[in-house]
């Protein structure tokens, strides 16, 4: 599947669990770093076809990646299990939607045994695009509900702006809708105003 889909799968799963911002970032890495083995394309097509779905998609890489990320995590037991599960989620999504003729080499480098799905969806299929849109929807929902985006650590100011923009849009929609004013709005302190004034703690 597309790498953006993998990244957002890590983000959405990471938000289902009691993890720290750094661990949520690591969830995105654990869900997407496998595709590093496609970097061979920069050098040659041959290298790409020889090693894509091998080096980064094998169990040894998943275990190593999960261990390294866990070392820098706080909730180590939960984090390790989550990272390893996300690694396998990546394999599952690739098995479904990497297109025909793209086997996975789970046991590489110890074995060249292939996992090949003869009914894999084409890479640019409606299933893959639909999955991407579903995860984008989940990401927007998380931003509105939890007030954070995948940029929370990498670009905190942009993360904050995106959250405020989404919050402003929801407040605009609420102000158009008829109905009795809430006790909060009667006092003239809407949620978005409080957020802009930093009087609402971020989760
Ligand atoms: Zn992959």
Give the amount of beta strand, in percent: under 5%
Task: Describe the largest sheet.
Answer: none
Return Rg in Å: 21 Å
List the helices and strands in order: HHHHHHHHH
Give the ligands present.
zinc ion
What is the end-to-end distance?
Answer: 31 Å
Give the helix tally.
Answer: 9
List segments where confidence is low: pLDDT < 50 over at least 5 consecutive residues.
182-203
Instruction: Give average pLDDT, whole number.
Output: 85
* Class from secondary-structure proportions: mainly alpha
How many distinct beta strands? 0
The dominant shape is globular
Residues in helices, as a percent range:
55-70%
Distinctive features:
disordered C terminus; binds zinc ion; 203 residues; mainly alpha; 58% helix
Explain this structure.
The chain is mainly alpha-helical and 203 residues long. Helix 1 (3-14) packs antiparallel against helix 2. The chain has a domain at 3-125. It is built from nine helices and no strands. The model is unreliable at 182-203 (pLDDT under 50). The radius of gyration is 21 Å and the shape is globular. Zinc ion binds at residues 34-35, 57, 90, 94.
Question: How is this structure best summarized?
Answer:
58% of the residues lie in helices and 0% in strands. The chain is an all-alpha fold. Bound molecules: zinc ion.
């Amino acid at each position: 599947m597309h790498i953006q889909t993998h990244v957002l799968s890590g983000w959405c799963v990471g938000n289902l669990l009691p993890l720290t911002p750094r661990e949520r970032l690591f969830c995105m890495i654990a869900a997407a770093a496998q595709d590093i083995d496609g970097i061979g394309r920069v050098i040659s097509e041959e290298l790409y076809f020889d090693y894509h779905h091998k080096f980064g998609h094998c169990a040894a890489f998943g275990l190593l990646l999960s261990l390294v990320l866990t070392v820098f995590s706080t909730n180590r037991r939960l984090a390790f299990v989550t990272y390893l599960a996300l690694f396998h989620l990546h394999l599952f999504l690739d098995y479904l939607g990497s297109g025909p003729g793209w086997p996975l080499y789970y046991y590489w480098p110890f074995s060249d045994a292939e996992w090949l799905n003869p009914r894999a969806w084409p890479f640019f299929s409606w299933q893959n695009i639909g999955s991407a849109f579903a995860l984008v929807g989940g990401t927007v929902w998380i931003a509105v509900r939890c007030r954070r985006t995948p940029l929370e650590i990498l670009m905190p100011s942009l993360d904050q702006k995106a959250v405020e923009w989404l919050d402003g849009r929801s407040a605009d929609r609420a102000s158009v809708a008829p109905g009795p004013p809430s006790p909060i709005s009667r006092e003239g302190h809407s949620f978005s105003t409080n957020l802009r004034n930093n009087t609402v703690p971020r989760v």
